[in-house]
Design goal:
Blueprint lengths: L1 E14 L2 E6 L2 E7 L6 H13 L3 E2 L5 E3 L1 H4 L2 E6 L21 H19 L4 E2 L6 E16 L8
Parallel strand pairs: 3-6, 6-7
Antiparallel strand pairs: 1-2, 1-3, 1-8, 4-5
Helix pairs in contact: 1-3
């Protein structure tokens, strides 16, 4: 599982000219799933998203998390995070999770985030053609990826 987290001043997602998700200061989170991902990977990633310190403290250090600043998160499903562009001119998506399974894991991930934070989240619509607008803050962008080396078991 991969996610790109971007610190933003605001972000929104529009589907068919209707705003379906919107946040002020917080995190814009793109989620991608590979064919072997499960709830275990989602639990790990959502814990990191909730607790990652991407916001500056009074000394300018990245020491504050979403809870510390009262921020929100906007989740966008993004299968292209598993694009393989190492050969040829067109990316391959053979490592991306199948649509129905990825939709379920996306929903699970957002619910996990909400349960950890005890608050809501905005989200895009899985499988929809989305228009995402954001104002980056920094910019600060972090890639988090779950692999066997992350295991805390």
């Amino acid at each position: 599982m991969r996610c790109i987290i971007q610190r933003v001043l605001n972000a929104n997602v529009v589907v068919d000219k209707v705003t379906v998700g919107k946040i002020d200061k917080g995190l814009l989170v793109y989620l991608g799933f590979c064919s072997t991902d499960s709830a275990k990977e989602a639990d790990y990633i959502m814990d990191r998203v909730c607790k990652i310190r991407m916001f500056e403290d009074d000394e300018g250090r990245l020491n504050r998390a979403l809870d510390d600043i009262g921020g929100s998160a906007l989740f966008i499903p993004n299968f292209t995070l598993y694009a393989d562009a190492m050969t040829g001119r067109r990316p391959s998506f053979v490592n991306a999770m199948k649509f129905d399974d990825a939709a379920r894991l996306f929903d699970y991930s957002v619910k996990k985030y909400k349960s950890i934070r005890g608050s809501g989240a905005a989200e895009g619509i899985f499988g929809a053609d989305m228009r995402i607008t954001s104002t980056a803050d920094g910019p600060v962008n972090i890639l988090i990826e779950y692999n066997a080396n992350n295991s805390e078991d």
